[in-house]
C-alpha cells in the first residue's frame, strides 16, 4: 500500500469505519419500518438469516476486489480484468458504483438534514426560542437547504482529513456514541406503558410468514442496502486494509455489528410505536398496515416525545442526535468513493477533490430540495432499488466468473493461511458465483 493513499491504522479502525458505513439510516430508520410493515419478528428472523447467508458473501466479494487492487473502485476492478472487454466491464461497474454512491448521498443529505433539524428543535424549546423551534420542524426550502448544507459540510470536513485522520478517527468516535445512545434510549422506552406489547410483537415470530415471498424479497433488499453493497464503498474501504488482515473474519465482524445495530434499532422503535399507540397516537390502519411508513420518525415518534412532557425534549434530542450520527457515519463512506477516484485517476489533491465533489453533490441536493415533491423519491428509487442491486450483482459476477479462483485464494491467504481448508472457502466461491447473483436479480426484478 502506497503511503500517499493512506490506510486504516488498525483492525479496529477498519471495523468501526466499515460498520459505520453499513450502519446508517437504513438500519435505524429503514429496518424498523420494514419490520413493522412485514410481520414483525418474522421479518427480523428472515433478515438475520439472509444477512449472513447472502449479503455477507457479496460483501466479501467487494472487500476482496478492493484489497487486491489497492486502489479506487474502477482501477481495482480493471486490475482483475485480463482483456479489453473485461476492463471496459470493470470500468462500467466501478464507475457505476461511484455514481450510485453520489446519488444516494445527494438525497441522503436532505434526510440527514431533517434529522439534524429535529435534534436542534428540542434545544431551541428549552431556551425559549419557540418560533425558531417551530421553523426547524416545518418543511420549508430555507430550512431544508440550510441543514442539508450543514450536513454536507460536516461530511466534507471529515473526508478532507484523509483515511486515518478523517474516516478512521471519526468512526472510532461516532460509533461508540451511537451504540451508547441506542442502548440508553432502549432502556428508557422499556419503562413506558405499552412497551411490553411492542417487545412481544418484535421478538415473537409468526413462523408461518417466514416463507412469504414478499417478506423474503423485502428482507433481502434490506440486508443488501444496509451493508452498503453496490456503491463502490466497500471496494474502496477494502483497498485501505493491510494485506496481513484476515478478511474472512473482518467481513463477518462488520456484518455482525451491522445486523446487531439494526436489531437494537428495532428494539427501540417498534416498542416506541406501541408506547405511542397506548398514548392515543394512531399507528396501524384497520387492515393492519403501517400508517406512517417511511415518515414514521417524523410523525409518530415526535408525537410520542411531545406526550412525555419536559422529559420528552431530552429524549427527542437524544434520539435525533443518534439518527444524525448514524447518517454521518454512512455519508463519509459515500463521499470517499468519488473522492478516491478523482484523487487517483485525475491526480487532484485530496482536499480540493473533496471540496469540489462535495459542492457538486450539494448542488444536486439543492435541486432535489427545490423539486422535493417528485425528485426525492425518484433519485432514491433510481439509486437504491435499481442502481445498488445491479452494481452488487455485477460485482458478484465479476468475482465469480472473471476473476481466477486461484488468484482469489492467493489474495485471501495473505491474511488467512489455512483458508483453503475452511468451511468458508468450500462454500463461498459457489455462493458468489451462482446464489448471490440470482438472489440479487430477484430483488431487482421485484423492484420493477
UniProtKB/TrEMBL annotation:
**Classification via InterPro entries:** Na/ntran_symport, SNS_sf, YocR/YhdH-like
Q: Which PROSITE patterns match?
A: NA_NEUROTRAN_SYMP_3
Q: Which SUPFAM superfamilies match?
A: SNF-like
Its membrane topology, per UniProt?
A: Multi-pass membrane protein
Question: Keywords for this entry?
Answer: Membrane, Transmembrane, Transmembrane helix, Transport
Q: Name it.
A: Sodium-dependent transporter
Chief location bin: membrane
Q: Where in the cell is it found?
A: Membrane
Family annotation (Pfam families)? SNF
Q: Does the keyword Transcription apply?
A: no
Where are the membrane-spanning stretches? Answer: 12-32, 44-68, 89-116, 145-163, 175-203, 223-242, 254-276, 355-374, 386-403, 423-445
Amino acid at each position: 500500500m502506497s503511503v500517499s493513499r493512506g490506510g486504516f491504522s488498525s483492525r479496529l479502525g477498519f471495523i468501526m469505519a466499515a460498520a459505520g458505513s453499513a450502519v446508517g439510516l437504513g438500519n435505524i430508520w429503514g429496518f424498523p419500518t420494514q419490520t413493522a410493515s412485514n410481520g414483525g419478528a418474522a421479518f427480523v428472523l428472515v433478515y438475520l438469516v439472509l444477512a449472513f447467508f447472502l449479503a455477507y458473501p457479496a460483501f466479501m466479494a467487494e472487500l476482496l476486489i478492493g484489497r487486491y487492487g489497492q486502489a479506487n473502485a474502477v482501477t481495482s476492478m480493471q486490475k482483475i480484468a485480463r482483456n479489453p472487454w473485461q476492463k471496459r466491464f470493470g470500468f462500467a461497474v466501478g464507475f457505476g458504483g461511484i455514481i450510485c454512491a453520489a446519488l444516494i448521498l445527494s438525497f441522503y443529505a436532505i434526510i440527514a438534514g431533517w434529522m439534524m433539524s429535529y435534534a436542534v428543535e428540542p434545544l431551541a424549546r428549552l431556551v425559549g426560542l419557540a418560533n425558531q423551534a417551530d421553523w426547524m420542524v416545518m418543511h420549508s426550502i430555507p430550512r431544508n437547504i440550510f441543514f442539508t448544507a450543514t450536513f454536507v459540510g460536516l461530511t466534507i470536513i471529515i473526508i478532507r482529513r484523509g483515511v486515518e485522520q478523517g474516516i478512521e478517527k471519526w468512526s472510532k468516535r461516532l460509533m461508540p456514541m451511537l451504540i451508547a445512545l441506542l442502548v440508553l434510549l432502549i432502556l428508557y422506552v422499556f419503562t413506558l406503558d405499552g412497551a411490553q406489547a411492542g417487545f412481544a410483537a418484535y421478538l415473537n415470530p409468526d413462523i408461518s410468514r417466514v416463507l412469504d415471498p414478499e417478506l423474503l424479497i423485502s428482507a433481502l433488499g434490506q440486508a443488501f442496502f444496509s451493508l452498503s453493497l453496490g456503491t463502490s464503498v466497500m471496494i474502496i474501504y477494502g483497498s485501505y486494509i493491510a494485506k496481513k488482515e484476515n478478511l474472512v473474519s473482518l467481513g463477518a465482524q462488520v456484518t455482525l455489528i451491522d445486523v446487531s445495530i439494526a436489531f437494537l434499532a428495532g428494539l427501540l422503535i417498534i416498542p416506541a410505536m406501541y408506547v405511542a399507540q397506548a398514548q392515543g397516537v394512531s399507528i396501524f390502519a384497520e387492515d393492519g398496515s403501517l400508517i406512517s411508513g417511511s415518515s414514521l420518525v417524523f410523525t409518530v415518534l415526535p408525537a410520542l416525545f411531545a406526550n412525555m412532557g419536559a422529559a420528552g425534549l431530552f429524549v427527542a434530542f437524544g434520539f435525533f442526535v443518534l439518527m444524525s450520527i448514524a447518517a454521518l457515519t454512512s455519508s463519509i463512506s459515500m463521499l470517499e468513493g468519488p473522492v478516491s477516484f478523482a484523487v487517483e485517476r485525475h491526480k487532484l489533491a485530496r482536499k480540493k477533490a473533496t471540496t469540489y465533489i462535495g459542492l457538486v453533490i450539494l448542488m444536486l441536493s439543492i435541486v432535489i430540495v427545490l423539486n422535493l415533491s417528485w425528485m426525492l423519491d425518484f433519485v432514491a428509487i433510481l439509486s437504491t432499488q435499481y442502481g445498488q442491486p445491479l452494481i452488487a450483482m455485477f460485482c458478484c459476477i465479476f468475482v465469480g466468473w472473471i476473476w481466477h479462483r486461484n488468484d482469489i485464494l492467493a489474495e485471501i491467504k495473505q491474511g488467512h493461511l489455512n483458508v483453503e481448508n475452511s468451511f468458508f472457502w468450500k462454500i463461498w466461491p459457489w455462493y458468489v458465483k451462482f446464489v448471490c447473483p440470482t438472489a440479487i436479480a430477484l430483488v431487482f426484478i421485484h423492484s420493477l
